[in-house]
Amino acid sequence: MKELSSIVEAAVRLRAADRILVMGCSGGGKTTLSRKICARPDLPYVSMDREFFWLPGWQKRDKAEERALIAAKVAEARWLIDGTAPSSFDLRLPRTQLVLWVRMPRWLCMWGALSRAVRWLGRSRPDMAPGCPERIHWEFLRYIWDWERKFAPKVLVGLAQHGPDVPVFQLKSRGEMRQLLDLLGRPA
Q1: In degrees to the nearest 10, what's the CA dihedral of 57, 125, 68, 94?
Q2: Which CATH number is 148's domain given?
Q3: pLDDT of 187 strictly over 70
Q4: C-alpha–C-alpha distance, residues 117 and 95, integer Å
């Protein structure tokens, strides 16, 4: 993993990047960050949940179709993809110019997921597939609680295997997210 240590360097690279991957645990704020970054002109926002994973009624899309959709999207010139999914790193990382890893503490991710559930309960969020109303269940909360221990190691392996030269910047607080967005708002 080619880790960036400076938020200023991350902002400079982010301004210049045409293909960005924003990843991290559910509830950490990656979608909010992604949407704010995509406010800049001509950078299409892509939600993996909405565009690749889910069909109405919380039905999982067929894996072959999912991979074909991902391959077609990453072939495009410009995008910001919001979603982790190490199983598709082989498709996404070779085309990615910058990874933003939203790596918040698990209590903050739990709070984010629960707050989102209360806000959207019974309705589909804009970044979710139509017909998939917001819900909260024990399995999902356990996934968030265990994310760093069970899934972060898979992310590290995937980054090393499929994107060893892709710069990665880890955001570990809401303050760092605000600082990055503030830096983006300033002229280069």
Answers
A1: -150
A2: 3.40.50.300
A3: no
A4: 33
